[in-house]
Specification:
Two copies of one chain form a homodimer. Chain A has 168 residues and is α/β, with parallel strands linked by helices. Chain A has six helices and six strands; from the N terminus they run βαβαβαβααβαβ. Chain A has a single domain (2-151), classed as Rossmann fold.
Chain lengths: 168, 168
C-alpha cells in the first residue's frame, strides 16, 4: 500500500516516524529516505541512528533551498535520492519504506513528477509512505491512502519559532 | 504549548509517536498516557517499552467499548487516566506529555469535557499533545496548535483490514 501524508499542517513527517517505530516494534525492516535534509541535527535521526532494523539515507545539503532558484547540487541530490528509493523498492529488503519530503522535491521541480509516479508503479510488498506538502493530484490519485494534515491553528502564526525537540 | 491532532484520517497517534522519538533523540523526558488502550500488542508500545527516557501508562481494557453503552470499568479507567495526566502535568518531570485518544474518551463521555479543559489549564513547561478524533470546539479554541488529519482516501474503504505493523 502507498500512503501519502500531505497538507500544510504539522504532523506529516512525525506520522511517518510513528509508523516507523510501530513497524520496528513488530520486527519489520525499515528504510527511511529523506529528500532535502542532510547533516542537520534532527532529534529523530539522532534517535533512529542507534536503532536496529532501520537504514537511513539523506539527500540534500545543509543549506536552505530557494524554490525559485535551486542550486545544481539540489538537483543532483534529488536524483541520487530517486535512485536510492528505486533501489530500496526493488531490493525486497524492507517491509516499510518512508520517502520523506518527496512531494516537496517534486513541487520544487528538483525531481520530475514522472519519476515519482514511476516509483509508485514499482511492484513491491513493502508499505510505502511519501510525505510532504503539495502532493500533486496525480500522486493522490495513484495512492492507496491519503491524509491531508490541515492546519487549523499553529503557534508559528503567533510568532513562535521552530524549537529543538518539537519541530526538529 | 498544547497540540491537538484530530480528524478522521490516519496519522494522529503516529504523529504523536513521531514527536516522542524526536524529543527522546534530543534528550527530553517523555510521558505517554493512553486512554482506551490496554494490554494490546501495539508495535509502538513493544518498541517504546525498551527505550529509556519515556514512561508509559495505559488506561482502558482489552475489550472494545460500545460508545452508546460503556461499561462501568471504562469510566473508572478514564478517571484513573485523568488523574495520571494531572499528576504528570504537575510533576515537572517531563518535557513532553502525550495524551493519546483523550478526545475520543471525552466524545464518548467516559470523561467530562470540563476535565479535559481543566487539564489544559494546568500550568506546565511541558509540551502537551492530545490526540483522537472528535476534538470538541472548546478544546480547539484553547489549544496552541491544531492539525486536522483529514481522510482524503483510505484503503479501509476498499475492504482492507487493519494490519499488524501498520495500524497497530
Amino acid at each position: 500500500m502507498i500512503h501519502i501524508y500531505t497538507g500544510n499542517g504539522k504532523g506529516k513527517t512525525t506520522a511517518a516516524l510513528g509508523l516507523i517505530i510501530r513497524a520496528i516494534g513488530n520486527g519489520k525492516r525499515v528504510c527511511l529516505i529523506q529528500f532535502m535534509k542532510k547533516n542537520f541535527e534532527y532529534g529523530e535521526i539522532k534517535f533512529l541512528e542507534n536503532v536496529s532494523g532501520i537504514d537511513i539515507f539523506q539527500f540534500g545539503t545543509d543549506q536552505l533551498i530557494d524554490p525559485n532558484n535551486p542550486d545544481e547540487i539540489d538537483f543532483k541530490e534529488a536524483e541520487s535520492g530517486y535512485k536510492k528509493v528505486r533501489e530500496a523498492l526493488n531490493s525486497g529488503k524492507y517491509d516499510l519504506i518512508v520517502i520523506d519530503e518527496i512531494n516537496v522535491a517534486v513541487k520544487w521541480k528538483l525531481l520530475p513528477l514522472e519519476k515519482q509516479l514511476e516509483l509508485m508503479d514499482i511492484k513491491t510488498d513493502a508499505e510505502v509512505v511519501m510525505t510532504g506538502r503539495y502532493a500533486s493530484p496525480e500522486i493522490i490519485k495513484r495512492a492507496d491512502l491519503v491524509t491531508e494534515m490541515l492546519e487549523i491553528k499553529h503557534y508559528f502564526n503567533e510568532g513562535v519559532q521552530a524549537r529543538k525537540g518539537v519541530e526538529f
